[in-house]
């Protein structure tokens, strides 16, 4: 884990362009095929991704972005299914979290289970992680194969294809601007998250 932290920290500190001077090709790239009718901000992640763990639990990027976006901005997080033995099961579990409105409650628990404890070795382990995080067993069980969750699974899978995502963490604004995670000036996790959030807000305004 220390090596992962050092690698990400060196990546963050290696650049010195301020959020106030964002330029296409530097802090962000435009997608070759913009996605129509997209949410304002979409983050793709995986619980199997060490950088996603740092992005979410150490740098607190997604929570900082969500806190600072303009009112009525739609921000969504989609789990990708192309990493890890239980990638597809975790995508369905994330759909359950979305359906029950417990994303903030279970995200740290799932990251800890996968990245720190390596305790996700079955579908039942995913269920147990939800329950240990405070989700009622009956709520999880009634949601897991529900129409709503099936629809949210399809929504995540379709978004993965629409945005042509092949690596995470990835954040796209207005369906057409993908932020370059390694081109943000910062001297601490807090500065990185704030600078990232500022770039997101500038791209939201860019339309």
From TrEMBL:
Gene3D superfamilies: Glutaredoxin. One of its GO terms (molecular function) is disulfide oxidoreductase activity. Its main location: periplasm. Residues 1-19 form the signal peptide. GO terms for cellular component: periplasmic space. It is found in: Periplasm. Residues 6-205 form the Thioredoxin domain. Belongs to the thioredoxin family. DsbA subfamily. This is Thiol:disulfide interchange protein. It comes from Proteus myxofaciens ATCC 19692.
């Amino acid at each position: 884990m220390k090596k992962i932290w050092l690698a990400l920290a060196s990546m963050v500190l290696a650049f010195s362009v301020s959020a106030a001077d964002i330029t296409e090709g530097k802090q962000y790239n435009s997608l070759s095929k913009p996605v129509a009718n997209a949410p304002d901000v979409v983050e793709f992640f995986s619980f199997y991704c060490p950088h996603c763990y740092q992005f979410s639990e150490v740098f607190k990027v997604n929570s900082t972005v969500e806190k600072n976006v303009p009112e009525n901005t739609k921000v969504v997080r989609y789990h990708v299914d192309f990493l890890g033995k239980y990638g597809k099961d975790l995508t369905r579990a994330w759909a359950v979290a979305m359906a029950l409105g417990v994303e903030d409650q279970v995200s740290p628990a799932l990251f800890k289970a996968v990245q720190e404890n390596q305790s996700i070795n079955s579908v039942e382990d995913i269920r147990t992680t939800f329950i240990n995080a405070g989700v009622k067993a009956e709520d999880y069980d009634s949601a897991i194969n529900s129409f709503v969750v099936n629809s949210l699974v399809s929504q995540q899978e379709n978004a993965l294809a629409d945005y042509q995502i092949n690596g995470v963490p990835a954040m796209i604004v207005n369906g057409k601007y993908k932020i370059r995670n390694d081109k943000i000036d910062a001297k601490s996790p807090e500065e990185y998250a704030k600078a990232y959030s500022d770039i997101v807000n500038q791209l939201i305004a860019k339309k």
